[in-house]
Design brief:
The structure is a homotetramer of 336-residue chains. Chain A has ten helices and 14 strands. In chain A, helix 3 links the parallel strand 8 (124-126) and strand 9 (161-164). Chain A folds into two domains: 2-63, Alpha-Beta Plaits, CATH 3.30.70.1140; 83-332, Alpha-Beta Barrel (TIM Barrel), CATH 3.20.20.70. Chain A has 336 residues and is of the alpha/beta class. In chain A, the strands form three sheets. In chain A, strands 7-8-9-10-11-12-13-14 form an eight-stranded parallel β-barrel, surrounded by seven helices.
């Protein structure tokens, strides 16, 4: 951290700040400029609250020097983390495609979609049994019954299952059925849930909060990694902006940024990041072109009948077309 | 809801959309304009997913007519909800002031602050025992030990306690100690937690998420109300914007908007909504002038030593001064 | 437009609103719902201020039905507009690439870059002679001298020139030298400038404002089209969000959205939309994969010496590599 | 500025960066930390583009130390700037209130409103003759005819006039009629216009862009000050956020932040910052309570008939009530 003193601060104020840094166990080095003095704080200052020092008399501001995440950082772990999924490795050149309905609605519905996405080349099946919904009056998911249908669909198709857990106490239950536990965007900073996900031996798909920075996403991954679970995939699913033509704004920049900052695989969710099926294929292709390791896509056999997220779900034939287009882009990138 | 057809849509497409609305159990009424036709959907369509209809051939867009919240709405409940707190009613003319440290750090710390804020005229004591922190390397709170210290501080000062629960399983524990259970900004859409808060008989302070809309805040309140708990106070604590000079942007507009839309009391948290102690008093005054029913303020006897949020904490003497200023504004408003 | 009445509004209020709509020259059609009544306003109500009606007693809100833009809309002009540039047509399958430095700094600098981007396959040369800078203390551009150097570079390379005009009175001067007049992001709603650009016979590259919606971009294009100039290319250059890791957030969704809403060609500027050269190639590829008709890229022979935007400028060899990658993506898309 | 080296950067890279800083005419001082080295750049580095250094091999990032504005800064000019207006000083304890219609629509309209706001205690009259409108199909203002009506209203009431200039060439014309030239939000970074406003001897009201940071507002003021015109009032008028219940989000934090950072007076525009007349009085009071030096308010004798901004305009009697409330708040603040 660097502490910038005010231009009219006194020597006494400077000494007091330096003394306090020393008391916290760090060394200091000063740079006297023409208008102001800055204090370099030497040592791993991640655990302390930087803004404390902004309270001290004579201090203008503080600025962080070190990245706040360590285990998630490529600085500490230069090699890509690879996570096995259905005979492939997420993070390897082959693009993975996770697909399925927003919600599990019934046994026939999930069986039919599972078959369809498998035929189109999907790597895994998604489907929500526990659904976080803005309104208490909306469909909230089938719960464990939905998990059972997912397990039957896996049995029938061989596709591994990606499904969401919404609270720490759901984690063991979901882990009994799921191959990959999803932590949803609204729960990205549900620390009790992150800790629970860090304590089990299971693959985790961590979605970026719609209001969260890239750094906060990596800090949430850090919670899971710090508890000992290294099998984390990150998912960009769009952020909230002033633009209202689409449901969210795909932060496509996040794809190369994350690939540079972290060794964890990066998945793009163009269904949520656009909110309209017409744009899903275009943004899926863009994600691959930007360097994403995979996609997660909402597919429904009859989107207008979907109990949730119909507007952003692809019909199976559109999905199959999208997979073909994305594979071509992947090949143009030297991937598969 | 209103469904707008595309300008080049066909009669057959129109008929298909109308038939689907009827199949969902609603009536329709058509308006044929010069460029397009719109379909009015008649009935309480809150439970259905409006965007489903956007999938249908020939549909341009849909627009909601009804407000999505009911129990939280002033339309259904024109009188202000009043919630008792330490001999006052939150929502009545007398302004309430909840104050205390971000985190409970030790018994002497909380006892000293509690005494100081009581003397300055606080209505209740705040302090976190379970702390949601962006980094796993930051101080995470004292847990139940912190709750015990809070209870001791209540014993000593008579101030009721406001403290946060972070997960559904913490709710019963926190409820044993707290007078008001806080649901934090990061958990505003933690539906398992909202449901748990709706199922107990306790007062709840629900903080707006940092990137949640006013409507979403009311929908989260609706979760609690729908489970049968009507004792909900709403808290504006700043939203995330592109402006980086302050930690958050106080959405002061939300104060009169909420007072108009809902019967629930509205509290302002200028400590979080500014993130810098220098601005807290000015924004506290602004909140009262805009019509807030109360304030929640971070106070620490020695902010640079605070284990969290030091930069936005007031010293007790600054806090006492702020209370005096705010009471003057309240009087100018015909309040107390 | 649709006018939604309040749930407790009276018949008298309804009649008054209807009367006022009629007085404004429109017809009405009513839909009586269970909780509220809505009024459909029939006719082209684009010229009137919809929010006026929100002032009337008993009105809850109004919602637009018609798109506010007409000339820019694909509804009115289904075929793609094609704009000639250096023997190609912008908007046709062949991707155009406009490249060059942020600012023209000297004759040798622009000559060297022009040669380099030409060799790498650029379609046109960009370079700023008039520079909008946040600080009055920053380099403000060479002015007309810069335009002359650009003209010399065109002479030497055959590349047409894209350069910015910052005020209406600069338009004739810039038009004397430039092949395409750029209207910068900060001037997207400088209506005097838009009108001036609409009144001359010249191609225009209109950049989206950093916090302007897609609809506002189209409304600004509408200003130019309404004055009779139909040669408008739109440019997505990133929007301002809470994410601070990149300078802006590329709104990649805007590419397919614009291609659907309008017949005008769409160019992506990944240099500004990321602000860091490391991410430019990835986002350029993403733009092509999403359906953009072209790219505009900042290139400098020695970026650390650039007088502006060095951090986001590619060296010529990186640019050449990027063009190769983008052509591969274009081919995978069935383009060139 | 401070330059942070990457954790794995080499000594040779460090030397190269240092050499380049020296070549730019600055001195350096190094701080070697445990994970990284930082370079302090000594001297006034405002004129150079900080991001250039981020291009250099081994550099992680750069961070500014000095504030980018000088003439606008309170560091350089600790005393409040006071600007005379109708016998008062803007910036002194007495609150100023500028009021009038969004647009000048006719002679009788402006005469009537002028009389009404004068009686209610307004300090000055506002009204637009040149109107920046999102749509080319909306009313664009009466132009010079509107300026003449404003002058007549001044003659009749004695109220000075505040009105907008939209382009540099309008500045002399507007200056002939107006007492205060307004630069609108959409033109906050129209540098040709800022330069023109800096070169005349006239009071300027500079509105913050809806997409602009506080720092950018001060940089735009710096343009005017740097040209020699010191009579600048700043105006907070709401920023664009994801919240859509109000037209904009009032950045109330900006009031105390600006009062701390700069010596220039600060005016709040609650009409634009809320967009709905119901909230104007509450936010006007909040602005005074937060420390604003004045208000600018839209008033119309019959808002539903207004040619622009009807929804956010107060009727004269509501405005008169608002002035009374705001004066009470001002008195509670020790102002007038």
């Amino acid at each position: 951290m660097v502490i910038v003193m005010k231009s009219h601060s006194t020597d006494k104020q400077l000494s007091a700040v330096v003394a306090r840094v020393h008391a916290a166990g760090y060394r200091t080095s000063l740079i006297k400029g023409e208008e102001t003095t800055i204090i370099g704080v030497i040592g791993d200052d991640r655990p302390i609250d930087r803004t404390q020092f902004e309270m001290l008399d004579g201090v203008e501001k503080t600025m962080p020097v070190l990245k706040p995440f360590k285990l998630a950082s490529r600085d500490m772990h230069p090699m890509d983390t690879l996570i096995p999924l259905n005979g492939h490795m997420v993070g390897a050149p082959k693009i993975v495609v996770i697909a399925g309905p927003c919600s599990v609605e019934s046994r026939p519905q999930i069986m039919e979609v599972a078959q369809a996405v498998k035929e189109a080349g999907a790597t895994a099946l998604r489907g929500g049994a526990f659904k976080p919904r803005t309104s208490p009056y909306s469909f909230q998911g089938l719960g464990e019954e939905g998990l059972q249908y997912l397990a039957e669909a896996r049995e029938a198709t061989g596709l591994p299952i990606v499904t969401e857990a919404m609270s720490p106490e759901q984690v063991p239950l979901v882990a009994r059925y799921a191959d990959v536990i999803q932590i949803g965007a609204r729960n990205m900073q549900n620390y009790a849930l992150l800790n629970a996900a860090g304590e089990i031996d299971a693959r985790v798909l961590l979605k970026r909060g719609m209001m969260s920075t890239i750094e906060e996403l990596l800090m949430s991954a850090e919670y899971i990694l710090a508890k000992g679970n290294a099998q984390v995939m990150l998912c960009e699913r769009g952020i909230r902006t002033f633009e209202k033509y689409t449901r969210n704004t795909t932060d496509i920049n996040a794809v190369p940024v994350l690939k540079q900052l972290t060794h964890l695989p990066v998945i793009l969710d163009p269904s949520h990041s656009t909110g309209k099926w017409e744009y899903v294929a275009a943004i899926a292709r863009a994600g691959i072109a930007a360097g994403a390791d995979g996609l997660i896509i909402e597919v429904h056999q009859n989107p207008p009948d979907a109990l949730s997220d119909g507007a952003q779900s692809l019909k199976p034939e559109k999905f199959a077309q999208m997979v073909i287009e994305c594979r071509k882009i992947a090949e143009a990138m030297g991937r598969m």
